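name: query_chain
kind: protein
chains: 1
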Amino acid sequence: MVLTFVDFFVYLAYYTVQPLIMKTLTMSMIVGAFFVFFTGCAVTNKLPSITVGGKANKDAALDAHLNKDGIGLTLPLVNVSVPFPDVTVEKD
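structure:
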């Protein structure tokens, strides 16, 4: 197989630039995933929440409640809260 001048540069560009592009793309995806994971995202809806650690037991060590806001369960170092959906009818 004989490589021409153009073939050589195409070969050189393919095998030197492609890994660089893949490394850049991979690093960008990893940095983006870390950014989303560590900053979190805010949602305006009422979503279930789970708290683990010392903040979970700020009110009581053992607790279970059911009220108009939702259902909650607190165990040592774990707090689970599930809010009820908010259904409102707007009058015109």
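note: The chain has two domains: 1-41, 45-87.
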